[in-house]
């Protein structure tokens, strides 16, 4: 059986996080991803823990299943070679600023002239037609500009970044979806196209989906803030001996939980007697839940909540997650042997297909590991 994107070649001109996350998804789906790196390599090769120079943890995790080709795009020969690679690619992905792509001869118009049906995906920091199109941008900047950092201050004492490069990864994932849609369009029409997924606009749309709230209406009926997720007491609950994550959502869940806790009277209060009022007064309601859950140990609550079919989980850190037996038994967490970096822990793809399974990709490449292979292919197809 072949993977969903078997036969698709992606020319990966990305670095750091947003673009490589996009091409990681495409690689997991079976595309051949040819990653072009400068002579010094993608900066991600130096990010995080490392046993071997140039093969740091972030790079190993973000670039598995890809091929590495080293080209100096500042040189005429390098630009000529990458142009030849464009001619072999179904998809071109980059996260450069528009002027940089143009300067390197890698604008959509440049690539379309070489490969008319190419799917060209740009992941800039800001939208290409706006006033900030050529501003530099990384995840922290976008989290701040798009409202995500300020949003964290609602239930803590100061603004803060989400403790993962969320804007990078959401933009990369959105770009992968856009590429798939453009490939589908090409399948039906034969035509390629330019796709742009700017990080700023992606994160504004992502955040405002629920946070727009009262500003959904004109004139506004209230602030742009969804009260349930902004509640100060929306956090893992302390139990008698630890912490527990619980989300009571439906009428039945609230009724079963409060009945079992001996607090059925709570739902008779005017501020809590409908879904809308419970959302509007979520913080006060979560404070009551916090009082209840402090009364028993975590294990007892888990048994009760499972019995009454309420969503719950113990608070887990990554060391706990990586020790979960079922994740190893299912192969989602596995150990693999990298030819240079040695024995590694690898996290699988969460996507599952009944007919076109995702197959574990190759190891993350060493710098320039596939340069000779890919350039030889170019020579074979040269006119």
Automatic annotation (TrEMBL):
<dbReference type="InterPro" id="IPR023606">
    <property type="entry name" value="CoA-Trfase_III_dom_1_sf"/>
</dbReference>
<keyword id="KW-0808">Transferase</keyword>
<dbReference type="InterPro" id="IPR044855">
    <property type="entry name" value="CoA-Trfase_III_dom3_sf"/>
</dbReference>
<protein>
    <submittedName>
        <fullName>CoA transferase</fullName>
        <ecNumber>2.8.3.-</ecNumber>
    </submittedName>
</protein>
<dbReference type="Pfam" id="PF02515">
    <property type="entry name" value="CoA_transf_3"/>
</dbReference>
<dbReference type="InterPro" id="IPR003673">
    <property type="entry name" value="CoA-Trfase_fam_III"/>
</dbReference>
<dbReference type="InterPro" id="IPR050483">
    <property type="entry name" value="CoA-transferase_III_domain"/>
</dbReference>
<dbReference type="GO" id="GO:0016740">
    <property type="term" value="F:transferase activity"/>
</dbReference>
